[in-house]
Design brief:
CATH class of the largest domain: Mainly Alpha
Strand order of the largest sheet: 1-2
Shape: globular
Helix content: 55-70%
Largest sheet: 2 strands, antiparallel
Strand content: under 5%
Distance between the termini: 43 Å
CATH topology of the largest domain: Rna Polymerase Sigma Factor, Chain: A
Number of domains: 2
Number of strands: 2
CATH superfamily of the largest domain: RNA polymerase sigma factor, region 2, helix turn helix motif
Structural class: mainly alpha
CATH architecture of the largest domain: Orthogonal Bundle
Amino acid sequence: MSGEDADLIRRCLAGDQKAYRDLVRRFQRPVFSVVVRMVRRAEDAEDITQETFVRMFRALDRYDPERPFTAWLFTIASRLAIDHLRRRRVQTVSLSQSEPGSSSEEHTIDVEDHGLKPDEITSHHEEEQRSQDLIDSLPEHYRIVVLLRHQQDLSYEEIAEALNLPLGTVKARIHRARAILKARIQPDQP
């Protein structure tokens, strides 16, 4: 933990309100960034980010300074995001429908893929957006480890601790997520 983080936590525990505000300012954007990528709705991410800091402050006296503070904070945020996703399971929609008043014959609805093709990606912004979309398309258990590893630069050990997973599981999920992303980027490659 950085000396500045340790000082802020010490001051928070002593009841310093300014330290609370500084701690929130310091970590609000990274927490929101990970949460919004998990839950995919800014309104929900704002609520979860706020709840993350409420829970952090309530549990700050139980924080172990031997652990990385960011890993501990992302533990709280990721668990809240996962709980939110479990409560809000996405409902699937059938892409086939029956004509009203007809037999049980179904008609298929064609859905055009509006995704960018590799040769259409010409600017850095478009490439970045495509990368974000690909990561967002990962199942949540892969997406969170990729975000914590590559967006928040947490080590495998910190991710394992943050998500309460065995280190081998974290490594396997990151490896599998990369393989999925590679297959989606290069679908015709062996």
